[in-house]
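Collaborator request, handled under Task 6.
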Amino acid sequence: MSDQTREKNTQNVVTLFESFNSGGDLGHLDDLIAPDYVGPQGDKGPDGFRKVIMGLRTAFPDIHYTIDDVLADGDRVAIRWHWTGTHKAQFRVIPATGKTVTNPGLAIFRLADGKVVSAALETDRLGFLEQIGAVPPNGGFGGPRPPSPPQAAHQ
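Structure tokens returned to the collaborator:
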């Protein structure tokens, strides 16, 4: 794979994450997500991806993603991020709490012809649920949760 292709794939993934921060149109997802994309939760194509993002934007209207690291190798781009937002509307089955959440995550995207065709995703789901009060702090085992490590700045 050429350096030019790797750079384009990296830029497309960064553009994808930057679009999460805009409250506007997600129509450009058609240019970034392949029609045969299947996401970690079974979402399919650009419309499935769009639905996931809109669910987060609805529940956390002030959501803001910060990119911490991006690495590319071959047809894959790995990205580590954290997002913050205020839980102002129902998220899945959890009613709005008004609590501010900070949640880290990482994903490895596979691209073909500059479009995302698959993704492996990991986020701190337990930490997220603790922050909105859906589960007791520290997973119900008592005591405070250890602090998160400092986030690296995206270069």
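The cover message to the collaborator said: "The two ends are 23 Å apart (CA to CA). The CA atoms of residues 71 and 130 lie 30 Å apart. Please let us know whether this matches your experimental observations."
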